[in-house]
Amino acid sequence: MPENPTSQPVPFRGGGFNPRPRALIGLAVMVVLIAVWETGCRTGIIHPLVLPAPSEAATAFMELVDSGLLWTHLGASLSRLVIGWTAGTILGITVGFAIGLFSLARAGMVPLVAAIFPIPKIALLPLFIIWFGIGEGSKVATILFGTFFPTVVATYGGVDNVDRGLIRMGQSFGLSWVSIVRKIILPGALPAILPGFRISAAIAIVLLVAAEMIGAEFGVGAYILMAGSLMAMDQLIAGVAILSTIGLTVSWIIGRAEKALLRWRV
Amino acid sequence: MQLILNGINHRYGSMPVLSDIDLEIPAGEIVCIVGPSGCGKSTLLRLIGGLERPDEGAVLEHGAPPADSLNPLTYIFQDFALLPWRSVAGNISLALEDHGLGKAKTDAIIDDVLARTKLSDFKTALPRQLSGGMKQRVAIARALAVRPAVLLMDEPLSALDSQTRELLMDDLVGLWSKTPFTAVYVTHNLNEAVRLGHKIVVLSRRPGRIREVVSIDMPLAERADRVGELASKQEQLWSLIRDEAAAADMELIDA
Question: What is the pLDDT of residues B198-251, one digit of tens each?
Fold first, then answer.
């Protein structure tokens, strides 16, 4: 500015693009939302048939606890979830490693995975009922199948991304094949495998409810289905809240696992 | 143990990268390999250590490695190649675990090499907590732990700043002066070559051939104080490489 040579600070253009954790904000959003919802129901803006008040859902939940059925439902659901997810994850990691390590497995399995992954597993549920029976088998199989594919994809992606320099280092020190896989490739692929767990766990919960809506006596899905057919919206909301809680808990557990196992990352 | 390279030819696809390499790496000496970028220096080192197979010719081990050597041909890499999830001690133990030495012996070796590389205070640190120079010291400690017959160093100081490089060169000279080791040292830095090399092998542009072998008789320990006398050697090397380095710089890189 030649006509007016004043000095001024350089305009700041940096900053941003760096979301930080803010404690309690998430909780506050939920509390506010529930408060608005409750107020809407109490003042009559929201018709109780359209959406019951959170307090009514809480009452329904307490009835469920008092009747002792909560633990029956929860126990049935959790055991299906744990068995199906664990089996699907173990199989998925095994196949994912095979694809990541062997040319033959890669050539054979990758097209297969690409072909089957996008099929909604719920569509296959009737088939599973014929194969594995209407009982626990078909439900566990659905969850297993749904968990398997995302785990395979996450695992072989992780194995592919392990620094080849580290593998060459292992070879240069004469490490055995097993040692290289166990001490270099497995920990190196973990940063990709663990986030895959979040996705597969969410898919497992979705499939759990779907599977429990067909021919299950107990289970959170069965409870929600029954509430829906009785138009007991307060129970339906309570059931959905239970599912959310399961989801939150699983996500928290995986978060802790990531913190513990990936401490070495920056 | 002595290494003999016999008529080595190597190609990547149809492109020759090394041509007619004959070289002896005598025991107890550091042989530096210099040359313009892309001349196949690093490929040659991978061939020497058995990480790649030459298309023609052979790398021969002459004489048996010392009986206590766990990994006769041991690399030190430019990017350190430390496992980020293992501590300093864990990274060194990685190289020892497959040998079934037992905990007491493994711990003794780790403590010994950490002391020799002045790393004892950092035993439990993770690689991300260390500076580049410290990481390379860990890699050197790991290499020493397996008591190599020949150290194969692939531009070990190239990822470091020049001050750290000076310090590590002093460390290497100190280690060699205490117990002379055999080493092949690939570098593009001529100053490192004249400071550390007993013999300096000059490779030509791709396909790499041996253009000249320059010997320097001055003891390693004296070189830091007599840089003036080394300058003429460095100048001689530079005049050998200069034109080719300029030409190599203009080349397209194709894999």
Answer: 999 999 888 889 999 999 999 999 998 888 889 989 999 998 888 888 887 787
The answer to the question of residue B162 being in a domain is: yes
Q: Which residues of B touch A166 (CB under 8 A)?
A: 81, 83
- Output Rg (C-alpha) for chain B, integer angstroms: 18
Interface confidence (ipTM) of the complex: 0.90
List pLDDT tens digits, range B139-175: 999 999 999 999 999 999 999 999 999 999 999 999 9
| Cross-chain residue pair A264–B85, CB shorter than 8 Å | yes
| Residue of chain B nearest A180, judged by CA positions | B94
DSSP-H helix ranges across B87-226:
88-97, 103-116, 132-145, 162-178, 190-196, 220-223
Which residue of chain A comes nearest to B97, CA vs CA? A175
- Chain B residues 177-236 with a CB less than 8 Å from chain A: none
Domain interval for residue A188: 61-259
Query: How many domains does chain A fold into?
Result: 1
Residue B54 resides in a domain: no
Q: Using a CB-CB distance cutoff of 8 angstroms, which residues of chain B are in contact with residue A170?
A: 94
Domain range spanning residue B161?
2-39+88-249
